[in-house]
Amino acid sequence: MIKRHYKILIAAGMTFSFFGFVMNKKSNANMEVLKITPIEQRVDSLLEKMTLDEKVGQMNLYNGFWDVTGPTPKEGSAKLKYEHLRKGWVGAMLSVRGAENVKEVQRIAVEETRLGIPLLIGFDVIHGYKTLSPIPLAESASWDLEAIEKSARVAATEASAAGINWTFAPMVDISRDPRWGRVMEGGGEDPYLGSKIARARVQGFQGDDLSDKHSIAACAKHFAAYGFSEAGKEYNSVDIGTSTLYNTVLPPFKAAADSGVKTFMNSFNELNGIPVTGSEFLQRDILKGAWNFEGFVVSDWASINELIFWGHAKDKRQAAIIASKAGSDLDMEGYVYIRELVQLVEDGIVAESVIDDAVRRILKVKFELGLFDNPYIYCDSETEKAVIGKAEHHEAVLDVAKKSIVLLKNEQNLLPLQKKGQKIALIGPLAADKNSPLGSWRIASDDNTAVSVLEGMKKYTGNTLIHEKGVDLVDGHAAFIEEVVLNTTNRDGMKEAVAAAKTADVVVMVLGEHGFQSGEARSRTELDLPGLQQELLEAVYAVNKNIVLVLNNGRPLAIEWAAEHIPAIVEGWQLGTQSGNAIAQVLYGDYNPSGKLPMTFPRNVGQIPIYYNHKSTGRPTNDNDNVFWSHYIDKENTPLWVFGHGLSYTTFEYKNFKVHGDKFSIGDNIKVTVDITNTGNYDGKEVVQLYIRDLFGSITRPVKELKGFELVHFKKGETKTIEFMLTNKELGFYNNQGKYMVEAGDFEVFVGGSSDTKLKDTFTLNY
Ligand code: BGC
């Protein structure tokens, strides 16, 4: 009965949108009942019709039939997946893409199963679908929330045209460890910036109306603390205190939840002894309890099954009990729920209410996406052809790519390059690479579709450009852990590169990591330039010191020699499809860079974890000139480049910084202003950053915490007054019970263009 009803809805999709419009204008008593009943009631009435098998089926997520993003489980044959689809035992699929392919699986779910419940179609739309934006870490360096939101919007528009209705993004894991390859997927090291970015990305993916055919459901991942994997090693244990959990790890997740993100994904790590997929504390107490999150939680790839390998569950049966009770609603490629849950409910071990709660959450998102009204809303090949790769998408990703570039160093004003009369040697294994700039997590994009730096620079025809690769850089795709693969020994091109450099006015070297050397399962123990690149850099430097080093990398690198010797360094990350155009425009000064690092760059691996918002320690300085203070004996405490660092072709002067008042009461709004002048020769943008230090607290506070920022454009010579407001929201912290509190005390406030700004004022906060 219900099945027929839904089919009628599909056929009459157009009419119902019209009714929807009328409904807004005036109430119509005769209107179709399902359309006007709130989603919760539609969910409940469907749930009543479902058998236990069908309910558990909704909690089952299968990978599609080709792209694989995790270890392939023995159980997962295509035959079995189709069989389960037809029985209504599959609630969602991932990595099925293309309007026609999605339509086919959706058709089976809607037309061949008893209840015709449509599928969620998930995909890792991490930084674009086919037209790629910069990797998320790079985009975060823009500090440009509008551009970040727009980039997610472009991604959603293309992905939805290819049949996808759910992305496994944004990743909002804070991390302080660049050895961990997945830092490329996130917003960096800071919870405040990370929270703003989380909100922008959720908004970009989901838009204002989830049922719009260009909006897709977002997924905040990986809940939680995956970014703190011990020693930066992938899939490792996490052991952190409650203060770090509440104040550093959770805020971006909370921001995503508060922004209405529809789904969460848990993670592969354990947290303080409990694999998070089985963590009731995280999923039930915090997420669904304290935060009142009404969406669902998807496991990570087979992470329910992995409870066994963690030594937390004896077998699949126990894994199913633990994960379902803990609040993991949907089993991704784990084959655990589908195998165990029905029996567990029949045996009275898992309460049916646990299943009902999970299914309700999953169905609710399907209703919100409009899939019951039209399950094929995302499956139109004509739209797919028209939308994917549109010129305006290329413009948007070029725009955000330029904004993501960080000028790390620019001595002797080597940059911008002159447009005429120079001989430029372009050297390095990544200079002509059209694949690597696409970065990791780019499953739907076509290989070799990025604009290379060589192609970008060729557009500037006033100079002579010679190109030499120098050495090879191995595609990290094959280089899972084999050191030998990372370290190619072929020096054949070195001589030509050095010869080219010798005769050049300026050498532009494009070095770094291949796009597949960061990302999932790409942890590294060294953060140098892989292979023979350092040797190449030094060989070129020996004959020509006028080097502009353009870095392409998915994580902070420890390149102390380069930072010391090379006069100009540009952080060019992996910038996606328009990479080379963005880099060339910055090198030639057609775009004045304004990016700021979202993550600290260490001097060497031994300093890790190194981050700006660390604690003071009891022995922060060597004032008395003795050895017993917090430091290393072989390396300074400072990093290579601090969080928030980034230069411009122009310069900014900060003046008249003040907190308006000395004494305040908790709850007051505290006004802070500063005058900033563009004192250089170019128009340009500055990310004005506001930090606080709470000088003493019942829980020790970091030496600096970002609490505000504004991206401001200044014309040459222009002065602007920038105002910030500090409120309870910025001045408090979570105690070890997870309670937010604001304490009286003395505060320092800093403002500047990076986290090591010394421009300071103070105030006292009273009860
Ligand atoms: C990753 C997730 C991803 C999932 C599906 C897992 O290996 O950890 O981030 O969404 O695969 O591709």
From TrEMBL:
Broad class of enzyme this protein falls into: hydrolase
GO BP, sorted A to Z: glucan catabolic process
Catalysed reactions, as listed in the record: Hydrolysis of terminal, non-reducing beta-D-glucosyl residues with release of beta-D-glucose
Residue stretches making up the Fibronectin type III-like domain: 686-755
Known EC number: 3.2.1.21
One Pfam family here: Glyco_hydro_3_C
GO molecular function, one term: beta-glucosidase activity
Alphabetic keyword roster: Glycosidase, Hydrolase, Signal
Transmembrane stretches, start-end: none
SMART domains: Fn3_like (SM01217)
Similarity comment: family membership: Belongs to the glycosyl hydrolase 3 family.
The protein's name in its UniProt record: beta-glucosidase
Organism of provenance: Kordia periserrulae
